[in-house]
Every structure is written in C-alpha cells, then in structure tokens.
Design goal:
The structure holds two protein chains of two kinds. Chain A is of the alpha/beta class. Helix content of chain A is about 40%, strand content about 20%. Classes of the chains: A alpha/beta, B mainly alpha.
C-alpha cells in the first residue's frame, strides 16, 4: 500500500495534465483572457461611420435590438478567416463592425474586396472604445441585448460550430 | 576603432518601451506612471508589464494611464480603471480573494504537507545508533593516524 502512494500522486498529476490538454484540444487555451464585461451595460461611446452609405455607432443605437458588435481591422489576418462566417449572420442579428485602429481607406478597400456583411460600421481610430470593451486583440465580438447589456463575448475568430451551437441560439433567446 | 565600438557598447542604455513622446512633463507624475505600469500586465504578451512591452495595446494603455493620472486619479483608481475592463488578470500581482485562494495558500499548504511527511518519516526511523569500532577497525584507524 505504502508503495502505491507515489504512483497515486503521479496518476493525479497526470489527470490534471490530461484534463488541461483535452480542454486545449477543444480550443480553450490557457492564455485566453476571460471577459469581465458580461451582464454589464455596454460602455458609453459614439463613433463616426466608416462609409457614407452606412451609419456609425453610438451606445444609444443599441437600445431595442439584439446587436453583435464585431471588432475588426484590415491588418488583422485572423479577421480574414472569420469574415465569410459573418456573412452568414446577415439578417439574423443586427451586425455592427467596429474598425479598430485602422486607416479608414484600408478598411474600405478590405470590405470592397471581401464583401461587407455589416449593418453599420463605426471607426475606432485610437482604439479607446475597444479598451472600454476590454478588447485585447482583433477580432473580438460582443452580443448586446435589447437593454444594452453585454450578454456574450467571443474573444477570438468565430468558428462555424460556435456560431451554430452558441451564438445563434443565444440570439434567438434574447429576441424572445 | 575597436576601442570606440567598445566604449559605445559600454555606455549603451537599455532600450525602453516607453517612448519619449508618451512621457509626461511633470517628472513626479511620470515616475508614478512608470511605477504603476510596472504592475500592469500587457494583455498581448501576457508575461510582460505594459512598461516593458512594445505591443501597440501596451502603448495605448500607457498613454491612457497617464491621462488618468493627469485627470487626478489616485494610483489605486487608475489601476481599478483597467481592472474594470480587463479583470484582475491585468494586475501582475494578483489580489488575495476567493479566486486566488489556491494560488496564495497553495505553496503554504504544500510546505505543511511536505513538512508533515518529512517529520513523520524521520520520527519513525530514529537515526541508527552509532556502534563502537570493532578492535580490527580500531587497529586500522590507528595505523592511518
């Protein structure tokens, strides 16, 4: 029995490592930073539009509809891979892009080339609004309910699974 | 020429992440900002402080921090401003609370467990008694001496 103790300790340590590895395999990385914004009112901001044809965004615009705020930039490589997924959200949620620390002309070119999935696009030139949301890299997305509260945050590029199994069901629930 | 290069290498200063254009004119306030930013984590590099980091976001946070100080924030308020947005993770010295209990008390617990294990192990096996030398050994020893 006594000789089993070190083996037991080893198995327990192995168990911890296995659990962590499985979580990482599922995309839960230890360096992911969890949001502290959940269930809080969206920060105060008022940002100018990127395009003449679409509005920008201010906190007051969030009232009355479920909105997905997506921070993006033309210099952001992962945003490129996320972009086609956003097009699938057209008509299913009020999708707002916030162009993060980007030359507006570059962002316009980028959208002209890849397509524009957004209902409104705001320019956050100095990244201050992003900091108020707790953004630490692009892309990041925040789902805001009709009362203007943040209900969900996704701090990396969307995956089709995440959209199907988490985002869209939550949008449906908030729209009830 | 070689001596000149050596001399230049010796007087070279460490490269600072903080750029001159970010610094505040008031040296006292700037010193406070430097101290605070040493305790704030760069969210991009994660194991560097924003004082050390060249990341874009770190620079933005340094500038933001200085603006808060100029606006009259205390050190604590300025840190709290970032904690509200990024959580306790932004602090390089995690506060003592329910979530960090294991972090702070874990080492103490392990010390106690280890100490207890060592204690009970030594108590069970008293040091073997010192036996007197046999006559042969005594003779051998005397030969060496």
């Amino acid at each position: 029995m006594r000789r089993l103790v070190p083996l037991l300790i080893f198995v327990v340590v192995l168990g911890f490592i296995a659990v962590r590895l499985v979580k990482m395999e599922k995309g839960d990385m230890p360096n992911d930073i969890k949001t502290v914004m959940l269930d809080r009112q969206a920060p105060e901001f008022s940002l100018p539009p990127l395009l003449e044809t679409k509005p920008g965004l201010a906190t007051a615009d969030l009232a009355g509809k479920v909105t997905l705020v997506n921070f993006f930039a033309s210099w952001c490589v992962p945003c490129r891979s996320e972009h086609p997924l956003l097009a699938r959200l057209k008509g299913r949620v009020n999708l707002v892009g916030i162009d993060y620390k980007n030359e507006p002309a570059d962002a316009r070119n980028w959208l002209a080339g890849l397509g524009d999935p957004y209902d409104a696009i705001a320019v956050d030139r100095d990244g201050r609004t992003a900091i108020d949301f707790g953004v630490y890299g692009v892309p990041e997305s925040y789902l805001i309910d009709r009362q203007g509260r943040i209900r969900y945050a996704w701090k990396k590029p969307f995956t089709p699974e995440e959209i199907q199994t988490v985002l869209l069901p939550l949008v449906a629930e908030l729209n009830k | 020429m070689r001596w000149l290069a050596l001399a230049l290498a010796l007087i070279a200063l460490p490269a600072l992440a903080v750029q001159p254009d970010e610094m505040l004119k008031d040296p006292k306030l700037e010193a406070r900002a430097r101290e605070i930013s040493k305790d704030l984590r760069c969210l991009v590099c994660q194991n560097q402080s924003i004082d050390d980091s060249d990341a874009d976001l770190a620079r933005d946070l340094r500038v933001l921090l200085r603006q808060r100080l100029v606006a009259g924030d205390s050190d604590r308020q300025a840190k709290q401003f970032l904690v509200e947005r990024y959580g306790d993770y932004v602090l390089l010295r995690p506060p003592f609370n329910a979530e960090t209990l294991v972090l702070w008390l874990g080492p103490l617990a392990f010390l106690l467990i280890g100490g207890f294990a060592a204690f009970s192990l030594y108590r069970r096996k008293p040091a073997s008694e010192v036996k007197a030398l046999t006559p042969e050994e005594q003779a051998k020893l005397e030969r060496f001496l």
